[in-house]
Amino acid sequence: MQFQRLLYLAAGIGLLYMAHRAYGWPGMAAVAGGLLMWLLLHFTRVMTVLKRASDRPIGYVDSAVMLNAKLKPGVTLMHVMAMTRSLGERLSEENVQPEVYRWRDNGDSSVTAEFHGGKLHRWKLDRPSTDTDTDAPAAPSDGAAPAPGPGAPTP
Known about the structure:
The chain is of the alpha+beta class and 155 residues long. Helices cover 44% and strands 15% of the residues. The protein has three helices and four strands; from the N terminus they run αααββββ.
């Protein structure tokens, strides 16, 4: 993560240097304006995501199953916050790696995501257990075939 920041800084300084060498001060001013515009666009995106997230409860998502389907390894926490439009419920201690967050939906399904260095490393979908065994009709215990229902052809 630190190397990537240094690479961005070096690329910006390199662009400024090449613009100055090729076009003088006007070229340097044009590149500086472009870099400033890029920084302002990034800042605006961050503020928009945080504003949308502040309007919803912490750790809430419309559908945990859909969130689980959309997640990919390597996406940033900011990208996940933009998808959920909510801050995640922090499960780990502050300033401890990995950072663990959880998002729940109305059906008590939840997605627990683990971030290393701000990037998604792994996630898990937890769904509440349902008792479908009590709704199903009981099968015959003697191994015989069930009797045909009304309207069934007779052999």
